[in-house]
Every structure is written in structure tokens, then in C-alpha cells.
Amino acid sequence: MSKSKLSAVPIANSLDDLRNVVNGWKAGGKSVMLVPTMGALHEGHLSLVRIARRKADRVVVSIFVNPAQFAPHEDFQEYPREFEGDAAKLAGEQVDLIYAPKPDVMYAPGASTTVQVEALSSQLCGISRPHFFGGVATIVTKLLIQCAPDMAIFGEKDYQQLLVIRALVRDLSLPVEICAGPIIRDKNGLALSSRNAYLTPEQRRTAPMLNRMMLRAADRITEGADISAVLQHTRSELLKSGFDKIDYLEIHDAETLAPVANKITSPARLFAAAWLGQTRLIDNIAL
Ligand code: PAF
């Protein structure tokens, strides 16, 4: 076990250290919640930590930038790594343990087992990032097995990821309750994301248009306007406002992610992924 220079929170870098601490808590009857992250922590992550703090006796935050959820052309190398700053933020939230595994703890040499959640991964982000959900499902399964928490929490900003994780927990009979935290936004509506750090000042001015236009589209659809006409109009408005490319702007069932083309008959959400330069933003709202 080690401690960061700036943080009072103990840090486990190995599986043995993680298990020793968690087993000790469990032997003492304490409930444990895991907050999995890739670091570069912002208020969205900290909101999950605060929910965890309220619900569980002990809170573990994992920090691991997972190579398997990035394609070779994506931003694995550039992804922000701010360990000391993250550790200081987590000390401020009275987190009990940081789990920062070394890469070979997560991917032993020769590792060849993966977890795929087929149906849910084939929609939305799974189309433009086909590697992504396999990488997420595999690492989250490992984190849940390694830490064996009573609960784990994920943000609704990555709503499809949340559904994929709920499905793998159900399908693999993992004894953990999956909790969700609401999307945390800047005052201007932009959903917080570690990748917002990539945006130039000009892109930062454009970025909030995504949520603004989604809200406008959702209002019109709720009032009964034709879904495909509203989505078509919103796509072209986003491109006019400065977005470079739209991966999707679609309505899907909130549980199954089945696409909704004409009529909303069960809980549904509007999902979007759009590019500003090299930065891909995602957002979703309930309808
Ligand atoms: O949402 C994230 O930060 C990551 O996808 C997760 C769940 C920590 C897995 O690497």
C-alpha cells in the first residue's frame, strides 16, 4: 500500500492490497461501494463519489485508463492523466481507498478472455466505436470481481455503458447492485466529461449547443411533432452551429435501446454523439 504525496487516501496498486483492505471491511460488517473511473476527475465523478459516500460505509474509487476501450486511432495516449490532482480531490470527499492497478494487474501477459454484451453493444456508440463496449465490459467485470463490492455506481452520461454493465451483471450473476448517478452539466448545459479538456475556446462556445438543441428537439417531439422531421432539422442545425460531424442523433428505448422511429410508446431517450474537431461529445436526455 502507498500514499500519494498530496493525498491522505491510501492507494492499492496490487490485487492483494485491494483484497486485504476490502476483506477486512467486510469482516467488520461494512458495506462497500466501488466507483470505477479513468481518472481526470471532474464534478460528474465527484457527484458519484458523494452518492457512494451516502449509500455505503466504505468507498473505493478505481483509476485505470483502460487501453482496451480505445481503438488504435483513438486518444489513449492523449487521454488526460492527473493522478496527484485526482488523489487530492478524492481526499476532499473522504474516499477510503484508491485502487490504481498497474496495467499487468488488469491485463496479464497472454490474457485472452473478454466479455461481450451483444445486443446492447450493437447500437449507437457501438456502431461508430465497435471496440468500445467489449473493452468496457471486460474491464468492469474484472473490477467487480477483483473488488467484490456490494454496490458500484456509473453515470447516466454514458447511458448505454450503464445498460451494458447492468446486463453483464445480470447475465454473469455477479452479486453487486448497480447504481446510477444523473448527468452533471456546466451552467450552459454542456455535460461534464474528461474529454471537454480537449476543446479549444471556440469549440467550448459551440459545445453547449448540443444539449440546447437536444432539449428543443425533445420539447417538439413531446408536443407531437414528427420525430424524423425534428431529428433531421436538429442534425442540420447542429452542423450549421459549428459541429463537424454527427455520429447519431436518435431516439431509443430506455431499457432495450431498440430504435424508436415514429412513435414513443414506452420510456425512451434522445441520444447524440457529435464531433467538434477531434473531440467527440455524447449526451442523452429522457423524453
Ligand atoms: O466511464 C468510464 O470512465 C469508463 O468507461 C469505465 C467505466 C471506468 C471503464 O473503464
CATH third-tier fold name of the largest domain: Rossmann fold
Element order: H for helix, E for strand: EEHEHEHEHHHHEHEHHHEEE
User: In total, how many domains does the architecture comprise?
Assistant: 2
Bound molecules: pantoate
The biggest beta sheet, please? 7 strands, mixed
CATH class of the largest domain, please?
Answer: Alpha Beta
Question: Rounded to an integer, what's the Rg over CA atoms?
Answer: 19 Å
Examine the secondary-structure arrangement and name the CATH architecture of the largest domain. 3-Layer(aba) Sandwich
Q: What fraction of the residues are assigned to beta strands by DSSP?
A: 15-25%
Shape: globular
Poorly predicted runs of 5 or more residues: none
- DSSP helix fraction: 25-40%
Provide the structure class.
Answer: alpha/beta
Q: Terminal Cα separation, in Å?
A: 46 Å
Q: What name goes with the CATH superfamily of the largest domain?
A: HUPs
Q: Residue-averaged pLDDT, rounded?
A: 96
Q: How many strands appear in the DSSP assignment?
A: 10
Helix tally?
11
Fold and architecture overview:
- With 287 residues, the protein is an alpha/beta fold.
- The protein folds into 2 domains: 2-181, Rossmann fold (3-Layer(aba) Sandwich), CATH 3.40.50.620; 194-286, Pantoate--beta-alanine Ligase, Chain: A,domain 2 (2-Layer Sandwich).
- Helices cover 39% and strands 20% of the residues.
- It contains 11 helices and 10 strands.
- The protein has helices spanning 15-27, 43-55, 83-92, 103-106, 118-121, 125-128, 132-147, 159-171, 201-206, 209-222, 227-240, and strands at residues 2-3, 10-12, 32-37, 58-63, 97-99, 151-155, 177-181, 245-253, 268-276, 279-286.
- The protein has a 7-stranded mixed β-sheet, with helices on both faces.
- The structure holds pantoate.
- Pantoate is lined by residues 36-38, 66, 69, 136, 139-140, 158, 161.
